[in-house]
Amino acid sequence: MATYDPSVVRDRIFSSYRDAMDGGAAAPSSTGAASAKVILDFLDEVDDTPVEGAIMYSTFFEKAADYLVRSGKPDIDITSLVLKREDWDEEAQDAIPKVDPHYKWQHQILYPSILALKNKLKALYVGPTGSGKTTFHENLAGMFNQPFYRLGGRGDMESDVILGRQDMQSGSMDFLLGEFPQRYVAGWYILLDEPWKLPSNINMAFQRVFERGGVLQIDEARGTLADKQFHPAPTTHLMLADNVVGTGDGADRYSATMIQDGSTINRMDMVLKVDYLAPADEVEMLMNRFNAFLPEHIATKAVQVANLVRNGVEEGEISVTMSPRNLIAWMEMAQKVRSYEEAFTWVMSERYADDKERGAVGGMYFTAFGKSL
């Protein structure tokens, strides 16, 4: 008798169920959709033993098993996401990020991200400056042995920089692909960082890309319509990250942000909120990095300063936040000069041109450490 992987069966049933709910021309009847839903619910209750040799979420990521137990969520087979470094060419291998051994995964973000990657969904990651949106994707690409390409949005960016341009080659005009389509068809992990800073006309060029199985069409490319269309490779992942959703939320704090057409937001399958690590996790991160130097009570006070600074930015009291990267730099400098005050001045205080802001940050330092800068 044939055996079936329950996760494969579930995926196929879910696809039929989704088609039914979309009301497509070829969709099953409502009765069929209801039946699919019943079977889905049943499969969620039966033993979903992973295929032998499968790579599972619970064992691949640190503290994932604890998260699954606490949340009651099912494990995920991520075998298809974990690639082999040697399968990439030399250029692509050089673009595979090095995983930070001390990186702290936020499983409330990681778990839905894995579901998005497995199902080829587009997700927009929203969070304050320095909350680790880019670092999250860099480490994820590194874990999966996948070359990573970050396209940072700029208001003055021209389309030929992103998509490509006409060029004279051997006496004839030819079209040179830009970095984005090259990586898109080659199967890279792509992060469109701060897309709302891109001019709206360029964002509109990505509308089909943002759709399921999105096709990038470059009308300036030579040849037939098929030659102008660029399809993602099976391993291609495209995610977006920004400080705001793009509909005007908090845009007054991000002057370069443009309120984008609602059609872009509607093409996002998921919107995930990224925040700073919980204080205890951030303390643990510092202790793991500096365990031979840093007392835990100092790490706790340092994280307290960071959160006071972040709250100050949120409330409009000061203009520059304190990221985990800044925290690490502060401890690195303190380790070298044996002075937390002097290191903090170098890393943070002088970022503020305004005396009032420097005074406010100095007060935050005093609140945590009981010392003046």
Task: Give the SSE map.
Layout: H1 6-22, H2 30-45, H3 57-60, H4 64-71, H5 90-94, H6 107-118, E1 123-126, H7 133-143, E2 148-152, H8 159-162, E3 164-169, E4 172-177, H9 179-186, E5 189-193, H10 200-205, E6 216-217, H11 225-228, E7 229-230, E8 237-242, H12 262-266, E9 270-273, H13 279-289, H14 296-314, H15 324-337, H16 340-347, H17 355-369
Parallel strand pairs: 1-8, 1-9, 2-5, 5-8
Antiparallel strand pairs: 3-4, 6-7
What does this structure look like?
This protein is an alpha/beta fold and 373 residues long. It has three domains: 1-49; 83-273, Rossmann fold; 279-369. Helix content is 45%, strand content 11%. It has 17 helices and nine strands. The chain has a five-stranded parallel β-sheet with strand order 2-5-8-1-9, sandwiched between helices. The protein has a two-stranded antiparallel sheet with strand order 3-4. A two-stranded antiparallel ribbon has the order 6-7. A hairpin with a 2-residue loop joins strand 3 (164-169) and strand 4 (172-177). The longest helix is centred in the last third of the chain and has 19 residues, at 296-314. The chain is globular.
